[in-house]
Write a structure and sequence with these properties.
Blueprint lengths: L16 E13 L5 E12 L6 E4 L5 H18 L2 E4 L2 H15 L8 E5 L14 H7 L11 H8 L3 H27 L7 E3 L2
Parallel strand pairs: 1-4, 4-5
Antiparallel strand pairs: 1-2, 2-3, 5-6
Helix pairs in contact: 4-5
Length: 197
């Protein structure tokens, strides 16, 4: 049975569902070799639209572009009844909120989430990566592959690296939209859960 969407007071429109993904780079060492993160790109798309929005950290004005990137995403987030992505409750959403906190911008509010990694039905000995699930279902998408040198170029904000990063993050959103629809069709997703910062 497909997950139930939030009930809307007007009862006149379908729930607005926002699909999104981030890319991030290590920023500084923290403890035991653990690194802090800095968001370098966010892509998002409404489930009922084809267009994918993209914002990236710019090399010459990182703070200004980070604020603009986060504010643009937060506007879409605030308009959504539910957000969806792969491992968003433990990765993307906390990292976005930390970036907002550091820049002293308004934080994310609690939101209903459909996480295609954390909300998969019980299973064992099966890869839960988005790429593996897309391949398992034979979806007509392919994750944009980046090698270590490509990531180094992206993290250094070179034009070629940023172009590859843009292809990677938008391909993840495009593929995830298809994956979530297929998981719902297969009855493989549990009900959405509320994410509380």
């Amino acid at each position: 049975m497909p997950p139930r969407l939030p009930s809307l007071s007007s009862g006149r429109r379908a729930a607005r569902i926002l699909d999104f993904d981030i890319e991030n780079r290590p920023l500084s060492y923290w403890y035991d070799g653990q690194a802090t993160a800095e968001i370098t790109a966010i892509a998002w798309s409404w489930m009922d639209e084809q267009y994918i929005y993209l914002r990236q950290l710019q090399p010459l004005s990182p703070r200004w572009s980070a604020e603009r990137m986060l504010q643009a995403f937060k506007t879409a987030y605030d308009a959504a009844d539910m957000v969806t992505g792969h491992y968003i409750r433990r990765h993307d959403l906390p990292i976005i909120n930390a970036a907002l906190l550091e820049l002293q911008l308004p934080l994310l509010s609690e939101k209903l989430t459909s996480d295609t990694k954390l909300d998969l039905v019980g299973r064992a000995d099966l890869s839960m990566s988005q790429e593996s699930l897309e391949a398992m279902y034979g979806l007509p998408v392919q994750k944009f592959d980046m090698r270590q040198q490509d990531w180094r170029d992206a993290n250094r904000r070179t034009p070629a690296g940023m172009k590859m990063e843009a292809q990677r993050v938008t391909s993840d959103v495009r593929g995830h939209k298809l994956l979530r629809a297929r998981l719902i069709e297969a009855g493989a997703l549990k009900r959405p859960k509320m994410w509380r910062p």
